[in-house]
Design goal:
Layout lengths: L3 E4 L5 H15 L4 H5 L7 E8 L2 E15 L2 E13 L8 H12 L6 E6 L13 E2 L3 E6 L9 E2 L5 H13 L6 E4 L2 H8 L7 E4 L4 E8 L2 E8 L4 H7 L6 E4 L10 E4 L6 E5 L1 H5 L14
Parallel strand pairs: 4-5, 12-13
Antiparallel strand pairs: 1-2, 2-3, 3-4, 3-9, 5-15, 6-15, 7-13, 7-14, 8-10, 10-11, 11-12
Helix pairs in contact: 4-5
The protein binds coenzyme A (COA).
Length: 287
């Protein structure tokens, strides 16, 4: 069948609508609000097989530059990998994977993605290798009250403010994404609108959630020390689980990360050189 590959077409309303229909059908996800809020920028690039104007298969490239131990590393993360159920098994997703890998050959330090359990045999066909991630946590005893201030994320003004905070501050982590607030905002403007906090004592922000007496800390934006930020959530917190890798891991318990339907696959120089390093990709930057 005749098909063409379309890339980076976000401002084409008809193709974007078709892409959203397929994403909705495959994953129950729709990127339209994210687009309308201005967060779908040049660092989210769909590569799609289009037949008669319809997107039937897609692999999206997320340009994810990282600050890793103070140095900038150019990574790309693949996501929204899907083929319409009526068009599977025709080589479309494979053709897109090859096209992406060809386009970024020599231009990225590494490529990674998170696979669900039904496709674990798919990615090795394109040079990907399974890798481990490690998570840090600790039990805590805190005597003070909760001192964090919730930052409302209810409208575009709030979202833009949060994106600017992300874009203009360091994060207190060994590994974090830079120059891509749009990907963080995918979560913060939709599924995590109640999860951003300000901690006055250390002039830092935290993205966090409480699960019973456990603080799930997604990131610290600013230079606030991890212990200081945890303490600011008060005596309700008995355990803190970090969804990023702290600069100083002393005093934390380390465990291999096992998350349902989330297998980390990698290829490229950065991942070969750091294969035995014990880090995790921030959960709120999964594409
Ligand atoms: C995974 C998916 C994108 C594959 O799309 P597709 O267009 O049917 O794939 P292709 O026809 O290009 O297949 C390329 C190769 O991968 C193989 N393959 C396809 N789906 C596979 C799967 N689920 N597991 C293992 N191998 C698979 C094919 O047999 C083919 O192998 P070959 O080149 O040796 O003949 C599609 O099944 C899908 O949309 N699944 C649901 C969404 C999903 O789970 N996406 C992954 C998110 S991490």
């Amino acid at each position: 069948m005749n098909y063409c590959i379309e890339k980076n077409y976000r401002n084409n309303d008809a193709l974007r609508a078709s892409f959203n229909r397929l994403a909705e059908k495959t994953f129950g996800l729709n990127f339209e609000n994210w687009y309308q809020n201005g967060f779908w920028q040049d660092n989210y690039i769909p590569y799609s097989v289009v037949i008669d104007g319809d997107v039937v298969s897609n692999v999206s490239v997320n340009a994810c530059n990282m600050n890793y131990k103070g140095k900038i590393v150019k990574l790309i993360q693949l996501g929204t990998i899907m083929t319409d159920i009526d068009h599977r098994g025709k080589g479309y997703a494979g053709a897109l994977m090859k096209e992406v890998i060809k386009d970024y050959d020599g231009k990225a330090d590494g490529i990674y993605l998170f696979a669900n359990d039904s496709v674990l045999e798919f990615y090795p066909k394109f040079g990907f290798k399974e890798a481990k991630e490690y998570q840090y946590s600790k039990e805590v005893t805190i005597s003070g009250k909760c001192k964090v201030q919730n930052i409302p994320l209810t409208n575009k003004t709030d979202f833009d403010r949060a994106a600017k905070i992300l874009d203009t501050n360091n994060q207190n982590a060994q590994l974090y994404m830079v120059g891509n607030p749009g990907l963080y905002m995918f979560y913060l403007s939709q599924f995590m609108t109640e999860n951003m906090f300000y901690i006055e004592e250390c002039s830092s922000y935290a993205v966090a959630e409480m699960e019973d007496d456990t603080l799930i800390l997604h990131t610290i934006i600013g230079n606030g020390a991890v212990d200081e930020v945890i303490r600011a959530f008060g005596s309700q917190v008995k355990k803190a689980v970090l969804c990023f890798t702290p600069k100083d891991t002393d005093g934390f318990e380390k465990s291999e990360l096992h998350e349902e339907d989330t297998t980390f696959f990698v290829q490229g120089k950065f991942f070969e050189e750091n294969y035995n390093e014990e880090y995790m990709m921030q959960a709120i930057t999964h594409a």
